[in-house]
Specification:
Belongs to the class-I aminoacyl-tRNA synthetase family. It is found in: Mitochondrion. Residues 438-495 form the RNA-binding S4 domain. By secondary structure, this protein is of the alpha/beta class. The chain folds into 3 domains: 58-301, HUPs (Rossmann fold), CATH 3.40.50.620; 328-403, Tyrosyl-Transfer RNA Synthetase (Orthogonal Bundle); 418-503, Structural Genomics Hypothetical 15.5 Kd Protein In mrcA-pckA Intergenic Region, Chain A. It has helices spanning 2-14, 30-36, 59-65, 76-82, 104-118, 149-172, 188-191, 203-206, 211-217, 224-229, 231-237, 245-248, 250-265, 277-291, 329-337, 341-351, 356-366, 375-403, 414-419, 431-434, 439-445, 452-460; strands spanning 71-72, 90-95, 122-127, 197-201, 269-273, 297-301, 314-315, 318-319, 426-429, 464-466, 469-470, 488-493, 497-503. It has a 6-stranded mixed sheet with strand order 1-6-5-2-3-4, sandwiched between helices. α14 (277-291) links the parallel β5 (269-273) and β6. The longest helix is centred in the last third of the chain and has 29 residues, at 375-403. 37% of the residues are buried.
């Protein structure tokens, strides 16, 4: 009974319904408290405390063994995750709307959120509708280009929909392999609950706060020396461009995001890439200073790099976008097919939910005689494409891959070709200019090859394909049956270089 009373007292201490627990000098003004709607979530019968317990794996251990932990602010985070009587943690990751879509570098944040969800915790994706107007200097050598309000709002809407779609699919897809026995993962009723994840926009709380409010109630807890000591700030101060006051204050805005959600939404863990460490610790420090409580944690994961140290997620054509509107599932799938052998196993651990034993089997198979090249890359491409684009997107990517493979017997259709049109070079030519013309001439007119001699040489080498069929005749003329559905030609030089000719 005594221990139960002590536990109840501790619970009451950590969940005040008002700001009475603050020291007098830390009390907030009535107006600011009203804006923040300060109250910590109270316990209810819906928490894990009041429900039968399941053996839930420790998410920190899972992330560590898969190479998804760079740093944590306190080892207590792991201890909390191991406590079956703890209320589920509430974890957030922020995404600034600097483009219409997130890219591959952002995907790790979504994957880590998915791991927390699958291990019984609640997750929040924060869209930076307010902070995106300022710009995060972390990992940047120059100030980000300023975006107009209309563009930011459009980007926010697109990213919100994208994140919701991926996380919702991950939670409802019962075929998604998480790499651990099903009875160790949270039961499906709770896992699929709409309350398990939220997508919010920080503009919703910043729009009500004036500059004077913010400086008086938050800015006074920030120490300039500490802010300048953050790695992201130090690097910019040492550069020729320096850092603007706007960017300098970004860490305080992100810190306030954590503070606000800790107080009003019960969010107690922030995750982010290793370049976000300074911003994350600014948040835990602000919570500790203003509220005089512990219990806010930060976890960072490594940036997605290749073995040579270059960023993974960039191609010659730019970023690898997650939105199918900006990069087709086919092109997304192809990017993972081309991952070097030296990186593929590590990326399977980081970017998929496959069991580690299965990944080890794939790794061992790569060393055996008779291994078919790119088999492991194909599995990586399938798993990541399924997670981002769903079964439908994966099917589209696989269909296009088979259909567009030089030498493929698959009959080409206009839908498949047009589906990748935005991802490969293309041009338009009039019908009369194409029909009955020499293929070598069309290859030069379209800009696909530099010269007729280059086209003839490629044909002699056996590397020129028309609609996936090898061309072995230098005098090949374009005939009516060559034109797919009367409007398209697909030229290929080897396996990778392609051009679509749209015929009008």
């Amino acid at each position: 009974m005594a221990s139960a009373a002590a536990a109840a007292a501790m619970t009451a201490l950590l969940r005040p319904s008002t700001t009475h627990f603050l020291n007098p000098r830390h009390r907030l003004s009535p107006r600011f408290s009203r804006l923040c709607n300060f109250s910590l979530p109270s316990s209810s019968p819906q928490t894990l405390e009041a429900q039968p317990q399941l053996a839930i794996p420790n998410v920190v251990d899972i992330l560590r063994e898969r190479g998804l932990v760079e740093s944590i602010t306190s080892d207590n985070l792991r201890s909390v995750c191991s406590n079956p009587n703890s209320i589920p943690l509430k974890v957030y990751c922020g995404f600034d709307p600097t483009a219409e879509s997130l890219h591959l570098g952002n995907l790790i944040g979504i994957i880590v959120l998915a791991w927390f969800r699958r291990c019984g915790h609640k997750t929040v994706a924060l869209i930076g509708g307010a902070t995106g107007r300022v710009g995060d200097p972390s990992g940047k050598s120059l100030e980000r280009p300023e975006l107009d309000v209309e563009t930011i709002e459009k980007n926010c809407a697109q990213i919100r929909a994208l994140v919701h779609r991926i996380l919702h699919r991950a939670s409802t897809n019962r075929e998604l392999k998480m790499g651990y026995p099903k009875d160790e993962i949270l039961n499906s009723d709770r896992k699929d609950s709409d309350n398990c994840f939220l997508v919010v926009d920080n503009f919703d709380w910043y729009k009500e706060i004036t500059l004077l409010d913010f400086l008086r109630e938050v800015g006074r807890y920030a120490r300039v020396g500490t802010m300048m000591a953050k790695e992201s700030v130090k690097k910019r101060l040492m550069s020729e461009e320096g850092i603007s006051y706007t960017e300098f204050t970004y860490q305080l805005l992100q810190a306030y995001d954590f503070f606000y959600m800790f107080k009003n939404m019960g969010v107690n863990v922030q995750i982010g890439g290793s370049d976000q460490w300074g911003n994350i610790t600014a948040g835990t420090e602000l919570i500790r200073k203003i509220l005089q409580v512990e219990g806010a944690y930060g976890l960072t994961f490594p940036l997605l790099l290749k073995s040579d140290g270059s960023k993974f997620g960039k191609s010659e054509d730019g970023a690898i976008w997650l939105s199918p509107a900006m990069l087709s599932p086919y092109k997304f799938y192809q990017y993972f097919i081309s991952v070097p052998d030296v990186d593929v196993v590590r990326f399977l651990k980081i970017l998929t939910f496959l069991n580690l034993e299965e990944i080890q089997e794939l790794e061992e198979a790569m060393k055996k005689p008779g291994y078919v090249p790119n088999t492991t890359q194909k599995r990586l491409a399938e798993e990541v494409t399924r997670f981002v684009h769903g079964e439908e997107g994966l099917a589209e990517a696989v269909k296009a891959t088979k259909a567009l493979k030089p030498g493929s017997e698959t009959e080409l259709d206009p839908e498949t070709i047009e589906g990748i049109a935005k991802d490969v070079p293309s041009c338009s030519l009039p019908y009369h200019q194409v029909l009955n013309s020499l293929l070598v001439e069309i290859s030069v007119t379209s800009g696909f090859l530099a010269s007729k001699s280059a086209a003839r040489r490629l044909i002699k080498q056996g590397g020129f394909y028309l609609n996936n069929k090898r061309v072995d005749n230098e005098g090949k003329m374009i005939e009516e049956f060559d034109i797919v559905s009367g409007k398209l030609l697909l030229l290929s030089a080897g396996k990778k270089n392609k051009m679509i000719i749209k015929i009008s």
